[in-house]
Amino acid sequence: MQSLGQPSIPSRKDVYANAQALSASRKGNALFQSVSSSTANQSSTMRERVPSRRPHPDLDIGASLTSSINTQSTYFRNSPFHAYAAGVSAMGNRLNHFTVPEDDYGVELDREEIRRFASDQYQEDVDATENDGYTENGFRNLDGSTVGTDPSKQSEGVSRAASHSDTKVSRYESELTKDEMARRKFEASFHSPGIQRTLFLMSVATLLGICLLFTFVNLQSKTYEDWMEPNRNSYTNEGIDWAPGPDAPPPQVGAQVDPVIERNIANWALGTLRVSSEASVDGYGSVSLSQSALARDVPLFFGLEYTGANMLDMLLGQCLNLVQASKAQLSDLTQQDSGISLILSNGRKYVNVDTTTVIGIDEAFTLGLVTSGLADVIYSPLLHQVSSLFSPQNQARLFVMLRHPVEAQFARLRYLRGTSSGDLPERYDELMNMSYEEFSNSDFVDDDWMTRALVNKVYGEVLTPNDMQTAKEILRRKAIIGLYDAPLVSFKKYARYFNWDQLRTGGFFTAETEQCVENLIEVAKSKDEILGAVDLNEDEAKEGSKAWKTIMERNKFDYELFMYGQMLYKYQIGLS
């Protein structure tokens, strides 16, 4: 250090050093060296307390230490050591940052001086802080080794403050405790971009959920018509603007609904309103047609005798005393007048037309069945043909009762056996001697009849996926859905929607009316199961049997439509 020239010796005060963590070599041998910006000035021999005091701006120890920190620090401000500003060497050692009084700035300190300051100051720090857990008589290197700095152990070597390239400087306290280290790491991880991004996304999702909840509550307070059918005068294939929800049936892509059905059969949600909460607690629906819709439109049941038509005929004719247009007895129709009129058959009232055949539909059109207002309900399995009876001013209100297609075909065999003497007299003997298995391979089995009726394709024409989409779309938008396996609930759902429960009872079914409905449901099901079932082996009709599989193979489209209709039924029940 004296090579710099003749030292000047100004007066100086005690030099303070705040030593904290001195690094150690792994072998335990350490040597303090001056942290300086020039290695050439550190080659002189160890001296006593009095250092060279020659001022030199390049040898300012504060600048030297700061330079060491800025150029060699391996831990940045977001590290666990940030709070203590620990200086760490490239070799993994921790060093001291000496605080030099102002009157000593610009003065060179030799390494013996630094060693003595560091040793004395460290012992003072240990004595002052051992009650706080800092009881080690040495510094702990980052590699886990400990080098003593107690003056009594100077013979064993003291911590080494390596100079220049492998040095870093610390300016504050000693080791972090394990708990403090864990806390610092947690805070650092909590404020990491990934955690902050996750918390932000969770907050956004929560707010969106709250908004959707309020939106749903708001929709529930509106009338059914407000949010189900905003474009009521637009005859397009876009369909109803369904209520939001994961179970809401979406429009069927590729569906091409016939313009006649689109114009003349109303979307089922059009012109509806909510009934009182007292009336809807029975679970049979809270949606009903408005008075204007009831005065303008006519209920139309789409189905066959063995898929619910016969059952509803009895329920509506006997329990509710409604006037019906369906398949009346030919003997009764011969008594008709020249114009449209009412006739009685089996104690029930009918209009004198047969809407289950093409000829009868043409006659009903000529007589003005719909505009006459005589019929409270019309039945037909010929959807496209019967749609011609209606108009945009007097639309049909479609309702159906879905039945499993295989069970429906077995019921068809029993129905034909029970009525073949009148309907098919020429094949009476053939039907009476036919088993379920023989029937499944005969031409009596309907081939996807419901899908064909909805898309207007006759037997022999190939059904396509687009036909399936069209059939589903008609049910989705146009039909109130009931299930043959749930006749009572389905009937009450129809009655609520069409306001039939108010015709005779002032708003609710009386006990007498409900008992009538329940009794006739049992009668209808008994006829379906017993009539024409003589000499039939019911084991052949069980699910999984050969006959069952054969019929299922011929009714794949109807089965898919049946499954889709069940979903619509549940949706409408839950919505209404």
What does this structure look like?
- Residues 143-157 have a biased composition (Polar residues).
- Residues 46-59, 163-176 have a biased composition (Basic and acidic residues).
- Residues 33-45 have a biased composition (Low complexity).
- Residues 28-61, 124-176 are annotated as: Disordered.
- The protein has 576 residues and is α/β, with parallel strands linked by helices.
- The chain is built from 22 helices and eleven strands.
- It has two domains: 2-184, no CATH class; 222-230 and 254-322 and 376-575, Rossmann fold, CATH 3.40.50.
- The chain is 41% helix and 7% strand.
- Strands 6-9-5-10-11 form a five-stranded parallel β-sheet.
- A hairpin with a 2-residue loop joins strand 7 (342-345) and strand 8.
- Helix 9 (309-319) packs antiparallel against helix 20, helix 17 packs across helix 18 and helix 18 (465-478) runs parallel beside helix 22 (556-575).
- The radius of gyration is 48 Å and the shape is elongated.
